[in-house]
Design a protein that fits this description.
- There is one protein chain.
- This protein is mostly helical.
- It has two helices and no strands.
- The longest helix has 24 residues.
Length: about 70
């Protein structure tokens, strides 16, 4: 097995995926709106709630890709 201390190797690219939700939620002007509504819920709220599921999926993916055996 290779030494993965320097960040190179199996799955190191996957950690960059964790930046996607971070950037998407920090860029507030992209979702600072009331419309479109979804079942009466303003866009501002359901967009953030959607990212809860997207983030957990990305985190699980990164975990399984970088898991050591």
């Amino acid at each position: 097995m290779s030494d993965d201390r320097n960040g190179s190797g199996r799955g190191s690219w996957a950690y960059w995926l964790l930046l996607i939700p971070f950037i998407a939620l920090l860029w507030v002007p992209s979702y600072n709106a009331v419309e479109p509504r979804w079942h009466g819920i303003p866009f501002f709220y359901w967009y953030q709630f959607l990212w809860v599921f997207i983030s957990s999926g990305l985190t699980a993916f990164v975990y399984f890709v970088t898991e050591r055996k």
